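S1.2 Input.
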Amino acid sequence: MALATSHHRLVVAAAAAAAGAAAAAPRGSLRFGAPRTPPRRICCLSVNSANVLGASSATADDPVPQPVVLIDQDSDRDATIVQLSFGDRLGALLDTMKALKDLGLDVTKGSVSTDSSVTQTKFHIMRLGRKVEDPDMLETIRLTIINNLLQYHPESSEKLAMGEFFGIKAPENKIDVEVATHVIVEDDGPKRSMLYIETADRPGLLLEVIKIITDVNCDVESAEIDTEGLVAKDKFHVSYRGAKLNSSLSQVLVNCLRYYLRRPETDEDSY
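S1.3 Output.
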């Protein structure tokens, strides 16, 4: 993960100072598990044909819609909700369902809705009878869905940051990370805070963010991971020792995230 070791020490030290006794407290727990492995390059194949899946019938003159992948940990107590849209170009997504099952996940419910010219497909998925709580698996799910979208709708490549890594055509208009990165912490009741992050999307982003949050001894209670074209828009419910973040710890977290998210990737031996 592209985080420098020397700055990592400063992050932990700053967090300890801001939180008072944070340095002596146990390392911040993570309810859906701390990331243990680096993000994996996903390559998902399907036994279904493109025609069965409703491959794009759009002509070359039609504008390419914005792809959206949303992973919702809040709306359902027992399951993780995955929602995918790409204008009106998506079919039954049997390939995506099979790819999720190949990850050891159970698709317990599926639905399709249409709002104006946008068709939204929603899956409720579980792992071992409960919602998915491992950040590494959540990032794998996100990359799997995006890779499947790129495979069956290659025109989406120019609208996704992942098109540069997995697609056939890199986006022509790339996001300025310095301009696009916004981090805000707000109170969300007496026992937790809401962390909002908007930044340029890239592989492993979720793991990188959660690593930074836990390094400042905060707990991640739930998350909503939203990929909208080139931009990632994520929300995290976070807490410190069962309470909302105080102003000092909130500022430390915001500064650390802004610093690391705006930095270009460094070599592998950092952080």
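S1.4 Remarks. The longest strand covers residues 106-115.
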